Amino acid sequence: MVGDFNIKDSLWDLSFLHYLFISNDLIIIVDSFHLSLLSSTNQVPTRYVDNLNNTNSVIDLIFLQCNSFKLNNHFIHPEWCLSSDYALLTVIIPISDNIINTHKSTIQKNSVEEELFIKDIISAIKNLNISNLSDILLLEKAVNNFAKNMDNAWNKNAKLTSITKHSKSWWDNNCSKDLKKYRSSKRFENWKFFHKTVKNTKRMFFDLKITEIANKK
Q1: Domain count, the chain
Q2: Beta carbons of 71 and 94 less than 8 angstroms apart
Q3: Are 8 and 76 within one domain?
Q4: Residues 145 and 72 occupy one common structural domain
Q5: Where among 39, 55, 90 does a domain terminate?
Q6: Which of 3, 65, 75, 8 shows the shortest CA–CA distance to 39?
Q7: Structural domain boundaries, residue 64
Q8: Cβ atoms of 156 and 120 closer than 8 Å
Q9: Would you list the DSSP string of 70-116?
Q10: Is the dihedral of CA 132, 133, 138, 140 positive or negative?
Q11: Which tens digit of pLDDT belongs to each residue from 64-94?
Q12: pLDDT band at 97 (very low <50, low <70, confident <90, very high)
């Protein structure tokens, strides 16, 4: 939460010697959002006046949700004011180097690939050798073999798709089929039918997700 709060207070301005009750209200509100006040690395004003009747002050503040020592202060840039009477505030947010997947392997629900995948799993279960599980090592071997067959079945039937901002987890073959039908005909009734399919597919998908979450709770 960043902005000009227009509040002078000794909590964030060392040149101001007073404490205002309204600052306490601000801190209470901020705390309710689990935010903390950042301290500036350079103790300089954020607002600069052009007359002798007023003084420069710190009234621009940054509140962040942070529990890390790497993210507990910001920097004030008075040299970037230009024609404004306010200084710019910046904060450096460290981002860890993570590998972000841009592809995923999927099997469409109610597809031919799903049927073949289930058949392969059933076959793997039938061929699982559990005749001699006399010790832990033999049990682990049987479990590892089954897991290997599961992976093989998935890799054999799954398709590699790109993850984009347009990817929709609820999209299925019916949506693709009706969209293709509309694009080939350009008829308004097919467009309406496509939208109905999308609406029903979304409802079924998210109803299932809600049920899954409710059951887990």
Answers
A1: 3
A2: yes
A3: yes
A4: no
A5: 90
A6: 75
A7: 2-90
A8: yes
A9: TSSEEEEEGGG-TTSSB-EEE--------PPP-EEEE--TTSHHHHH
A10: positive
A11: 876 666 777 888 998 988 888 899 999 887 7
A12: low
Instruction: Indicate whether 115 belongs to any domain.
Output: yes
Residues 41, 20, single domain; the answer is: yes
* Contacting residues for 142 by C-beta, under 8 A, at least 6 apart: 128, 129, 130, 133
10 phi/psi in degrees, rounded to 5: -70, -15
Question: Is there a domain that residue 9 lies in?
Answer: yes
Asked if residues 124 and 161 have their Cβ atoms less than 8 Å apart, the reply is: no
Q: Which two tokens stand for residue 54?
A: 């007023």
Residue 155 lies in a domain: yes
Q: Check whether residue 180 and residue 130 sit in a common domain.
A: no
- Identify the CA nearest to 60 among candidates 79, 82, 77: 77
**26 lies in some domain:** yes
User: Among all chains, which residue has been given the structure tokens 């079945």?
Assistant: 153
- Residue 154 pLDDT more than 70? yes
Looking at the whole model, is its pTM more than 0.70?
A: no
